[in-house]
Specification:
The complex is a heterodimer of chains A (393) and B (140). Chain A is of the alpha/beta class. Chain A contains 13 helices and 11 strands. Chain A has one domain: Peroxisomal Thiolase, Chain A, domain 1 (3-Layer(aba) Sandwich), CATH 3.40.47.10. The relative contact order of chain B is 0.19. Classes of the chains: A alpha/beta (393), B mainly beta (140). Chains A and B meet through helix 4, helix 5 and strand 5 of A and strand 4, strand 5 and strand 6 of B. The structure holds zinc ion. Zinc ion (ZN) binds next to loops of chain B.
């Protein structure tokens, strides 16, 4: 019997601001601008919204958004999804569950983040007081990692990446293939921050080491902007402006223990390792059915580990897979067709959902994946929390 | 990790909750982890409850300080000015003999000499009169 959530809820509107480095705007203003565009995209008015999901502290509170949008009857408000970049896909799951359970009919999920002009993740421990960071990671870093010199994502995920490189003999050229694919794709995306700025393998290999094994070009961008996503029931979706995109499967997963990298028996068993099989089962698809994958790309090596968790390739084999061109447009499984966090902008995973929706509506012009029917989006946050959504047209 | 003036300059632990007890033993140059007095399971980071059996009973049991490298990073670009003189530095994850894993800077090993399974041991650095930090060095 099909899962009760399968194909019950659709994404019906998406929108975003410009992506910049430096802004005179606020995250509230940006979130509202993206929300207005997403509503227009759907052919809906603000008062059609009766639920708001805000992402893990990366968007204004639902109540603030509702006040600005003139939503008189807010029935469902979630102000804090799971950590960081896992929050966007996890937010789809929360919204879909609420809609399928008839707690709300139409849910807005804005993600506004000034990761360049606001508090930068790289400033953890300096401008950001770790003892005030919400969720499970702040105290761990403040008490046990920071005094030992490990306090930004490049450090934490570096432990994973080193283990991965050492266990499987992964070459820098494999990580480079991810960075290069994202960059090539971004040239076809008018919104992408790095559009028109080429990146060659030589550039990549010559880019400086930030924290072994990460080079500069293994690391995502920091940018300013916002995205918004509108979801409603499949029945309502059929009467709206754009073709519906169905949430066929969704799941989240958490590595154990979630608040400490150090104690994990297998550092490469990530949240997505547990989440992916559940999402496939719900959607009743297999990795072979995927036409594209918008894989959360805070770091290139993380993408390789996620491709394995997704079952796209076996453990230790993602390097060979990506070096063969499979992940480029026209390849077996194009990834990051918008350029991702590496080359488009850092919207904490929300722009990955926006791109997947546009691919499935076949609105992507030059970067359109031919005959796209089913796509996957992943999220990744904090210390390796994972989330996944399988979308279909 | 001191500057030429002799003042310790790297960030110090916030020592919130049970972490304060861990560092109290460090000050006495003793590495101790929590050990459940009901099921015997060791744990680190410090927690009120035993994740293996649910017990709230534990002792701070003396650890050998010896372990083997599970993974590591070599930080080349300082992400805070305080680390300008420290780079490049190595921060391994170490499988301790008691079965827990621990994070601490590794002193005196060249980045190119790093490998999984390298035997290391804890020593203590008195950072300030109040705070002592555990560090790793190559096992002797
Ligand atoms: Zn116990």
């Amino acid at each position: 019997m099909a899962h009760f959530l399968k194909d019950k809820v659709c994404v019906v509107g998406v929108g975003e601001t410009k992506y910049t480095r430096g802004t005179a705007s606020t995250t509230l203003q940006d979130a509202l601008e993206a929300s207005a565009k997403a509503l227009a995209d759907a052919g809906l008015k603000p008062h059609d919204i009766d639920g708001i999901v805000s992402n893990a502290g990366l968007a204004p509170a639902p109540e603030t958004l509702a006040a600005n949008l003139g939503i008189r009857e807010l029935k469902f408000a979630v102000g804090n999804t799971v950590g960081g970049g896992a929050g966007a896909c996890a937010g789809l799951q929360i919204a879909a569950t609420a809609i399928a359970a008839e707690l709300a009919t139409t849910v807005l999920m804005p993600v506004g983040w000034h990761s360049y002009s606001g508090l930068r993740v790289r400033k953890l421990g300096s401008e950001v007081d770790l003892t005030t960071v919400p969720g499970p990671i702040g105290a761990t870093i403040a008490d046990f990692y920071m005094p030992q010199g490990a306090f930004v994502p490049a450090h934490f995920y570096g432990w994973m990446a080193t283990r991965y490189v050492q266990e499987y003999g992964v070459k820098p050229q494999s990580a480079a293939a991810v960075a290069l694919a994202a960059r090539r794709h971004c040239h076809l995306n008018p919104l992408a921050y790095m559009r028109g700025r080429p990146l060659t393998l030589e550039d990549y290999l010559n880019s400086r080491i930030i924290s072994y094994p990460f080079r500069l070009n293994d690391c995502c961008l920091e940018t300013d902007g916002a995205c918004a996503i509108v979801m409603t029931t499949a029945e309502r979706a059929r009467d709206l402006r754009k073709p519906p995109v169905y949430i066929s499967g969704c799941a989240e997963g958490h590595p154990y223990p979630d608040d400490d990298f150090g104690a994990r028996t297998d550092l490469l068993h990530i949240g997505l390792t547990d989440a992916a099989p559940k999402a496939y089962a719900m959607a009743e698809v297999t990795p072979a059915d995927l036409d594209f994958a918008e894989v959360y790309d805070c770091f290139t090596y993380v993408v390789l580990i996620e491709l394995e968790a997704l079952g796209v390739c076996k453990r230790g084999e993602a390097g060979d897979f990506v070096r063969g061109g499979a992940i480029e447009l026209g390849g077996r499984l194009p990834i990051l067709t918008h350029g991702g966090l590496l080359s488009e902008a850092h919207l904490a995973g929300a722009s990955h959902i926006v791109e997947a929706v546009r691919q499935l509506r076949r609105e992507c012009g030059e970067r359109q994946v031919k005959d796209a029917e089913v796509g996957v989006v992943t999220g990744w946050g904090d210390f390796g929390d994972g989330s996944i959504a399988i979308l279909r047209r | 990790m001191t500057n030429p003036g002799g003042k310790y300059q790297l960030p110090l632990p916030a020592r919130m909750g049970l972490a304060a007890e861990f560092y109290r033993y460090c000050k006495a140059h003793e590495l101790r982890f929590q050990r459940c007095t009901d099921c015997g399971a060791w744990r680190h980071l410090p927690r009120p409850m035993c994740p293996e059996c649910g017990s709230f009973n534990y002792q701070w049991a003396r650890a050998s300080g010896r372990g083997k490298v599970y993974s590591w990073i070599t930080v080349v670009q300082p992400m805070l000015p305080a680390f300008n003189d420290a780079v490049p530095y190595i921060v391994p994850l170490v499988d301790m003999e008691e079965g827990v894993r621990m994070v601490a800077m590794l002193e005196g090993v060249a980045p190119e000499a790093m490998h999984i399974g390298m035997a290391v041991e804890v020593y203590f650095e008195d950072a300030t009169p109040e705070i002592t930090l555990p560090r790793f060095r190559k096992a002797r």
